[in-house]
Amino acid sequence: MAKNQISEHYMANLLNKWYLHMRSHEVEQAENVKKEIDEKLPNMEENQDLLLYYSLLDFRHKIMTKNFAEDDILLGKVEPFKENMNHILTYYFYFFQGMYYWKTGKYNDALTQYQLAEKELGHVPDEFEKAEIPLSCRFCLL
Predict the structure, then answer these.
(1) Rounded distance, CA 59 to CA 41, Å?
(2) Of 101, 21, 113, 8, which is closest to residue 53 (Cα–Cα)?
(3) What DSSP designation does 121 have?
């Protein structure tokens, strides 16, 4: 690892911290961690999964801050890598896409994406994460 390079492990922890703030709807804390990540990202060790995770979390962040007018373009950038994503990234891809469709009033599309995300839940170790899908689907059915 080069002298100024940020380790994968450190960046993964920082990305997880960012996501935990988003999940808890702690907007200010999420914004602060995002700024830190954006400063360190150019110096991160090369890791395709972490870059995809960052892109998906950035999409989720924009949904949280209601700054998602261009985000179907962002998903278009991530989608070509979907075939090679691990189960957790695939789960986030569908789950965040479901959130996006819900926020934009495309409720049938949201339900479809939540159902696809639900298929990946067997590979998700976080119990809180597993609880969000059924809750999201219930909102789609209202």
Answers:
(1) 16
(2) 8
(3) G
Query: Residue written as tokens 């899908």?
Result: 133
CA distance 116 to 121: 9
Q: Which residue in the block uniquely carries the two structure tokens 């922890």? A: 13
Burial of 129 (0-12, 13-18, 19+ CB in 10 A): middle
Q: What is the pLDDT of residues 63-115, one digit of tens each?
A: 888 776 655 666 677 778 878 888 889 998 998 888 888 888 888 999 999 88
Quote the pTM value.
0.78
Our measurement of the distance from residue 134's CA atom to the centroid of its chain's CA atoms, rounded to an integer in Å, reads 18
- Name the token pair of 28: 């200010």
Residue 96 Cα distances to 5, 9, 43, 46, 81, angstroms: 30, 24, 27, 24, 16
